[in-house]
Write a structure and sequence with these properties.
The chain is rod-shaped. By secondary structure, the protein is an all-alpha fold. It is built from 1 helix and no strands. The longest helix has 64 residues. It is 74% helix and 0% strand. 0% of the residues are buried.
Length: 86
């Protein structure tokens, strides 16, 4: 027996006919299905948020690379002019 007064011993906690009834099993199954459905809906929602965040990250990354290439090209062009001017 645990400190909360519950026990896992079958002798101390006999199952009743009601516990094993088809109606009880159906109710338990329905409750578990509802929990699973809710969890899956939350998972889909979180997945969508993550996919959106990933798309935004890729857009920002592409923009930064474009800016980097632009700056790099400008610096290279500036260096070439400085070298040819000498």
């Amino acid at each position: 027996m645990s400190s909360q007064g519950f026990t896992t011993s079958p002798a101390c906690n006999p199952r009743t006919e009601e516990d094993s009834s088809p109606e009880r099993a159906a109710a338990t199954t329905a409750a578990l299905f509802d929990k699973l459905s809710n969890s899956m809906a939350l998972l889909r929602e979180q997945t969508k948020k993550l996919e959106t965040a990933l798309v935004e990250k890729k857009k920002r990354e592409a923009h930064l690379w474009a800016v980097w290439h632009q700056v790099s090209s400008s610096l290279e062009a500036g260096r070439g002019e400085a070298v040819t001017a000498e």
